[in-house]
Amino acid sequence: MKTPTYSALLRATCASFLLLAASACGSAPTQDDAPPAPGNAGLLAQIQAEVGTAACDSTQQCQTIAIGAKACGGPERYLAWSSKNNDGKKLKALALAQAEASRKQQQADGMMSTCSIVTDPGATCEAGRCVLQKSAMGGNAAM
Question: Which residues are CB-neighbours of 48 under 8 A, at least 6 positions away?
């Protein structure tokens, strides 16, 4: 049997590290594609129901709210919502409860994160519905 060379071992180690890092990282989730943290599906469903269609007449009615919690701190993502038919009190309470549940689950599981900062993208009214802004132009934050 042939003894592996140093460069072959180095390549194998680097490949293993890259696979491990890729499994722990990913692109930042958008408003609609982020999976709920385990045990938080009910709270996330309540948040989505409270946001509803996020109907708006103007961008001034569009707000953002932080959702979830990263292991290193800060939110996992943001949701756009509308103040047109919602004062946001229940939504804020649900978001706080969901973030706390995420933190507790992460601590129990010993989870780690990339410690990257998820900035508030702001929200805008498009076609009568509040949506997250595509660029990081900032906006009206509810939290």
Answer: none
Q: Which residues pair with 6 in a beta bridge?
A: none
CB 139 within 8 A of CB 133: yes
116-141 pLDDT, tens per residue? Answer: 888 999 999 999 999 999 865 555 54
What is the C-alpha to C-alpha distance for residues 5 and 13, in angstroms, rounded to an integer? 12
pLDDT digits (tens, 9 = 90+) for 14-40: 344 333 333 333 333 444 444 444 457
Q: DSSP of 11-43, one letter per residue?
A: HHHHHHHHHHHHHH--PPP-TTTPPPPTT-HHH
Q: Quick check: 95 and 45 in contact, CB under 8 A?
A: no
Contact of 66 with 95, CB cutoff 8 Å: yes
Question: CB atoms < 10 A from the CB of 38, how many?
Answer: 12
Cα–Cα dist 6/68, whole Å? 44
- Paired tokens of 95: 């978001």
